[in-house]
Amino acid sequence: MEDVQKSLHRKLFETINKEMTDEDFRSFRSIAQGKGLRPGEASKCNTPSDVLDKLQRKGKIKLGCYQVLKDIFIEMEQQELIKEVDKAEQKLEEAGCEISDEIPQPYENLRPPLRRQSSQPGESVAEKRRRFRSQTSSSSLDSNPSFERQMSPPGSAGTRRGSSTNQPPWTSFDSSSPPKFRRQSSGRSSFEHDDYDITTIDPAVIAERDDCYPPGQGYVLIINNFSQEREASTKDVEGLVEFFMKINYKVSTEEDLSKDEMIDTLDIAKLEMQKAARGKNKFKYSCFICIVSSHGDKEGVKSQDNQTVSMAELQTPFLGDSLKCMAGSPKMFIIQACRGDKKQPGVDRPDEEPGDEGQLDISDIMRSVTTPRDANILVAYATTEGFKAWRRTGEGSWFLFEMLEVFKAKVQSDHLLDMLTEVNDKVSHRTVVGSEPAKQMPCQVTTLTKKFFFST
């Protein structure tokens, strides 16, 4: 009887392999990345059988347990393939096999499945499941009670200093980080998946393009200093954490760090990326993103103990000769801080208090990113040389607020520099209310050599 069951299992795989067109296979391979396959694994699959074999090896598909396949075929809108699975389940049950609609284990790669254009615009995954269930008499598509929880994480309570995770918050947090990063947040994401679609871009296509950086999981470090006096800065951090966790990037957050603590934190991030690249699985992060929200002076950004951390000190640990495992990967530094000492009255508050000094000198940065070791670097400033960066109580900083809005709207279609150009435009249209109107103009300095997409 066991041989009969295995034979039926193999025949199902053979039928799926036979029935798929080339276009179906490309969609199948992409969606499978959201069900446990990493981009590198999926790109090596040349046939549907290869994908099925990978999913089976990872425990996503088992004899009599095909819910992951059904979920994929729903997203592909392949009703006939769903029927083939149902037929196989019926025959297996007749052969004495226990049929389960549960997913064997939590998805390893928690990207939501690829959303192909539906004939019913705006239809949610749950609605699509119900529609297909009504169209297939024997399908049990709504029988997985954990599916909606996986696709719609609960709301967020924010983060605190030392939180670190490389998974979305509705799964367990990563506990492998050094001690300084292990004070974990109890926050949960408040974004709904219908807010924005992070999977329109096919990572397999990006991986094959010479003009794009390879896709994969990125590492994000967020440092927020003077969190108590810089009203609404924590709101910026919460939004950043939610966004990057949503696209399955590893996120570490720190706040109110002294200069020594900032340097230590940068070194820990560097060591963790090196450790991952040297580990058993030799996993390499696709990019590094450092976001610093603080006061500033003409030499760099301020630490909590009112010392200056220069841009060179921020960048040096991650340059090509220092972090060789990331030599060809993009490293991005996003700086939310003032770069001048001019004050303008109004209901909006600048990112500096009256006692702060000066501005970041963009000429120094340009000198530091013109040599080969500094290739693949992006520095994005909240404002141009000589001017304040503004924020609004209850909303957060102009720059980071608009950046997140653009990222959420365009992450499925645009590369990073195109999105930052739109951020420049949106921020430039804002005006401080007061006796003397004040404006803000973000800018970027870049040695990126390819297009960068937020895809995993």
Automatic annotation (TrEMBL):
> Its GO biological process terms?
proteolysis; regulation of apoptotic process
Domain Caspase family p20: start-end pairs: 229-342
Name the Pfam families for this protein.
Peptidase_C14
> What SMART domains does the record point to?
CASc
Query: Region Disordered: which residues?
Result: 96-195
Residues covered by the DED domain: 8-87
Transmembrane intervals: none
Q: Where is the composition biased (Polar residues)?
A: 161-179
- Caspase family p10 domain span: 372-456
- Gene Ontology MF annotations: cysteine-type endopeptidase activity
Low complexity bias: where?
A: 134-146
Q: What InterPro entries does its record include?
A: Caspase-like_dom_sf, Caspase-related_regulators, DEATH-like_dom_sf, DED_dom, Pept_C14_caspase, Pept_C14_p10, Pept_C14_p20, Pept_C14A
Q: Which UniProt keywords apply?
A: Repeat
As for family, the record states: Belongs to the peptidase C14A family.
Name by which UniProt lists this protein: CASP3 protein
Organism of derivation: Branchiostoma lanceolatum (Common lancelet)
